[in-house]
Amino acid sequence: MVRTETSSVLSGPRFLGPALDDLGVRRGADGIATLRVWSGTADAMDLVVFDDTDLDWATAVLPMSDVGDGVWSVTSELLRPGARYAIRVNGPHGPGNTFNPTTLLLEPYSRGLVSGGYEDWRSVVVDGGFDWGDARKPRIPLDRTVIYEGHVKGLTKRHPDVPPALHGTYAGLAHPAMIEHLQTLGVTSVELLPVHAFATEPRLLQLGLANYWGYNSLNFFTPHGAYATAESRREGPEAILREFKGMVKLLHEAGLEVILDVVYNHTAEEGIGGPRTSFRGIDNRNYYRQTEDGTYIDVTGCGNAVNTSTDAAARLVIDSLRYWAQEVQVDGFRFDLAATLGRDETHAFTPQHPLLQAILHDPQLADVKMIAEPWDVGMGGWQTGNFGEGWSEWNDRYRDRVRNFWLSDVDYARRADTAPVGVGGFATRLAGSSNTFSVERGPLASVNFVTAHDGFTLRDLVSYDVKHNIGNGEHNRDGADTNRSFNHGAEGKTDDEGILATRRKAMRNLLGTLLLSAGVPMLTAGDEFARTQRGNNNAYCHDSSLTWLSWQHEPWQEDLFAHVRELIRLRQANPALRPTRFARSGESTPSASVMAWYDERGEMMSEDRWTNPAHRTLQYVATSTPEFEDANTVLLMVHGDERPIDVTLPLVDGIERYVPVWSSADERPTGQGGASLPGDTVSLIGTSMRLFVAE
C-alpha cells in the first residue's frame, strides 16, 4: 500500500505543525531531558519524580512552565532512563473541566509504565535502544496478504513446544515453534489484539473476571507489560520494550508482518466517575467528546470517546502511529471503531477528516497497512465502504452474506424446502464486493472475514444456534443475538456422526469461500483447527482455557488444518483469485480478473438464475489480466443446496481442460484425479465447493 506526500499535508493540518512537536520526554545530546505536556486549559502543572523502588516516595517536585500553545515544559537531569515520574495538573472549575491538583497522572507520551496497584500508575523514562541487525519489514503486497488475527497470550499459553517461561508472552510468539506453525499454515501477517498498555474495568474486577482482549487502553505508546516474560517484567519497562522489539525482529526475519489492533477511540478512564489516570485530569474538555454542560458523548459504548477533532488528540494518534511504525517497526494497524476517529467537531463522520487524511498521507507512515473497523455505536456510525481510497476495511457485509449462504439459508431451507434467496448476493461478495467499494479502491479495500475475535469461533458458528454467555456475568444479555449460525441439528456437543460430518463440511465451505474470494482474507487464530469457546460469542472477559488456543488436536482437526494450508497455497499460486483492481466491461484492466458466471448447465447465468432461491449453484470463471505475473484462469464451483447435483463444465474460449485442485467434499485434501474437458459432467454433493485450474 503506497502513499505519497501531498501539498495539503505539507501545509497542514494545523495539528502537524511545530507547536505540538516533541511532546513527552526527549533527551538531549548532553543526557539532560525535557518533558513537554499539552493542556489547553490548565493553569499549573508539576513534574513529580519518584524513588526507583518505592512508588509512593516522591523525591522531587518540579514546576513546569507554560511555553505557549498549551504546552507545559520542564528540563531536568532527573529524567534519566528508568526514572519513575507522574504529572499533577491544576486548572479552572466549570462544565467539562475535572482538574484535581493532588491526582498523579500518566504523561500521555510515556514509553514505559509501572503500577503500584489499581489506578496507581507511574510513567517511566525509556531509552529504547535496540539492535535491529539486518531485519527489515517484509512489505507483503496487499494482494498476497493473508491476515492471522490472534491474541498474544492466547496463542502460546498452552503450546507444548514453547518453553513454559515463554508461555503467553511476546517472546513466546516469536519462538521457533510458533513461527513454524505460521509459516506452515502460509499466513503472511499476524494481527495482534491490543498490545497498548491496558487495564481491566472495575466492574469485571468485582466479578472476578478480566479484560482479556485489551480494548481498554491506558496509554498509546507503551507495550502491555503483562505479556512480557517474568524476567523482562523484573527488569522493568526497558526490558519489556526490548522483548517486544525482539518479537517483531524475529517475525520479520521469518518473513512475517506484524499488524497491531489499536484502540484510539476511547480510553480506560470510562465515563465521569470512572478511573482518573491521564486525559481526564490533564484536559478533560479537549480530550473527550462532550456537550457544553460536560456530559460525555459516548459513541464507543465504553463510557467515553476521544475527541479527535481537537489538535492535541489528533496529533497524539499520529505520533503514536509514527512511534510504532518507525521505532518499533510494525507493519500495519487495524483501527478499532475507526468511525469515531473520523468524527468532526459536530461529532459527524466524514472520510475527509483531517486525521484520517493525515494517517494516509504522512510520509512516516508510507507503506504501512491501514485497516479500518468502519463503524462505532453512535448516530451514523456504520460506515462500511465509506473510508475512501488508501484504506482497507473490515467488511461486515461479506461476513454476513457468507454466513447466510452456507448456514442460515441452509437452516431455512430445511424447514421451508427452499432457501430464502438465490446466489447473486453471495457471488458479489466472492468477487470483491464491488457494490460496496468503488472502482478506484478496488477489491483490496475489502478485508474479508467470516469470524473474528468477537463473535462465535468457526466451530461454534456451525455448532450453536444461540449464544451461551452466562459465564460473562451479564445473564446472557451481552454479545450479539444475531449470529447467522446453524447448529445442524443439535445444540453444541453431540456424538451424532452425521451432524459432525455436516459441520466439518460447513467449516470447509466457509474457509474455502474466505480464502478463494477477491479481497484480503483474515483468518481468526484457532479456526484452522476448529477451536471452540463452547458457544460464548463475547469471551472478552475470560483469561482462561476457554480463550487460550489448545494445541492438542484430533485427527479431523489436523485434516482441517491441511485444508486451510492448501487453500492458502492455492490462493498464492493463482493470481486470478487475488485481483488488485476491478475489471471494467470492454476494457483491459491490468491486475484485474475478468469474471464469467455460469449455471449448473454450463450456460451463462440468467437474471432468474441469479435471484431464484431454487437455483443456488454457480460456476465462477476468473481470468487474470497479466501485469506482474503469468496469465491464469480458475473455475470455482459453488453449490448452496443440500441436495446433490450434476454440473456441466462450461465451454469457454481458450480453455481446453479443467484440472481439479480442491474440494470441500473431502475430509482431507487429496489428489483430485484427472482433468475434465469442457462439457463434461461433474457430480457435487450437497452444500459443497470445487476449485479447478483451467488450461
From TrEMBL:
Task: State the InterPro entries in the record.
Answer: GH, GH13_cat_dom, GlgX_Isoamylase_N_E_set, Glyco_hydro_13_N, Glyco_hydro_b, Glycogen_debranch_GlgX, Ig-like_fold, Ig_E-set
Query: What GO MF terms are annotated?
Result: amylo-alpha-1,6-glucosidase activity
One Pfam family name is CBM_48
> At the top level of its lineage, which domain of life is listed?
Bacteria
Transmembrane residue ranges = none
The answer to keyword Hydrolase applying to this record is yes
Region: Disordered, residue numbers: 473-494
Hydrolase found in the keyword field:
yes
Q: Where is the Glycosyl hydrolase family 13 catalytic domain?
A: 123-571
Q: Which GO terms describe its biological process?
A: glycogen catabolic process
Give the keywords, sorted.
Glycosidase, Hydrolase
Q: Which family does the entry's similarity section mention?
A: Belongs to the glycosyl hydrolase 13 family.
**Protein name in the entry:** Glycogen debranching protein GlgX
